[in-house]
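ok so i was messing around last nite and threw this chain in just to see what happens. nothing serious, just curious
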Amino acid sequence: MSAFTATRPFSGFSVDDIDAARTFYAETLGLEVSTNEMGFLAVHLPQGGSILVYSKPNHEPAGFTILNFPVEDVEAAVDDLNARGVVTKIYVDPDFGTDAKGIAHGAPGRGPDIAWFRDPAGNVLAVLADR
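result:
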């Protein structure tokens, strides 16, 4: 057997305010969140696994999507997120092709319907059609 045997891999990302992240992921998005002995968050994913969220004083938001949420209906998910105060229209480039709600509608060769939004630390997340 290889010396590298991954048993429970996980990913992580930084934020600038751990309390704001806890509130956003737990209360706004409704995910299960726990805190470990070092004060880091574990965002528990609905079908298993978790993501480590840690505070970093010189945090710089990820300029790429760090977490995707597959959903059955992107339009309904965006309406729900908007009702919770989440802004989904984060790209304003007219060539990017998002509608007024911030949804990029998929097409053959372009991928699924998708809408991006940011967490309180500025990290990019997305809801996308679960095809």
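not much to say yet. The first strand starts at residue 11 and ends at 15.
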